Amino acid sequence: MTLATETRAVRTVVYAVLLIPLIAGTVAAYGGLEGFAALFHESRTVVLAPALRDHVRAITWMFALLAPLVWWTVQDLAARATPFRLIMGWAAAAGIVRIVGMIVDGYAGVLACIFTGMELVLLPILIVWHARLVRRTLAAAA
Known about the structure:
The model has no long low-confidence stretch (mean pLDDT 94). This protein has one domain. It contains five helices and no strands. The chain is 82% helix and 0% strand. The two termini are 19 Å apart. The chain is an all-alpha fold.
């Protein structure tokens, strides 16, 4: 695979993954917990104190903001490798948090399991693939 083709492939996979925080974060930030529940086909009957609802909206908006930040990092793979790896590493760690949640709160459903798998498998693969591509890019420039 040529360097340009592999770069496009990495970016395409990253962009596809970024649809999750962009869509889910925006829906939850503006649709509240009811919108978030509807997006994931869960019961829309959500009881939570107003202050906690407010915090959830802000946190999910920050989740949505990962999309443009990661998009920025893949525009210059070599120069912005560290921010990309930090963000992806922290996102991958979310899989561990999900497992803890399943232990404490119980089974969270199929979508949660899919996202856990993505966080614990796909994101580390993306980090390794990204590192390989950065090495190839730097070697080609030398």
